[in-house]
């Protein structure tokens, strides 16, 4: 005695719904993958190519109510912008934060700016720079 087969006869009923669903899911996954890759590429390009101002803290001098920060800013000619600087106390609390604006004509700005603090600061940190 033989056992009956539970498989459908080949070629008789066309594709199963599982095969169609698998193919649809693969297509949707491929489209979503390409869109995600394009989105990451766009954000990467925008971050690298559109960042027209870069700066660094060269040094700083501390006092009881202020921090003198030596900033060096590199930017495109004709680009006006600002850099945000902050200072923290020894316990990590922020004691001062300010934006410093730079003229549009120079491509390199080397300047000492004074950041007023609520209490004695121990650091000077460049938070970021932005074009206007």
Structural overview:
The chain is an alpha+beta fold and 132 residues long. It folds into two domains: 14-50; 53-131, Immunoglobulin-like (Sandwich), CATH 2.60.40. Helices cover 25% and strands 40% of the residues. It has one helix and six strands; from the N terminus they run αββββββ. It has one helix at 17-49, and strands at 53-62, 66-75, 81-88, 94-102, 108-116, 125-131. The strands form two sheets. The protein has a three-stranded antiparallel β-sheet, with no helix packed on it. A three-stranded antiparallel β-sheet has the order 4-3-6, with no helix packed on it. The longest helix has 33 residues, at 17-49. The N and C termini lie far apart (86 Å). The mean pLDDT is 86.
User: How many alpha or pi helices?
Assistant: 1
- The name of the CATH topology of the largest domain is Immunoglobulin-like
Strand content: 35-45%
Question: Major sheet, described briefly?
Answer: 3 strands, antiparallel
Number of strands: 6
Poorly predicted runs are none
Helix and strand sequence: HEEEEEE
**For the terminal residues, how far apart are their CA atoms?**
86 Å
Assembly category: single chain
> What would CATH call the architecture of the largest domain?
Sandwich
For the largest sheet, list the strands in their spatial order.
1-2-5
Transmembrane segments: 25-45
Keywords: Membrane, Transmembrane, Transmembrane helix
InterPro entries: DUF4307 (IPR025443)
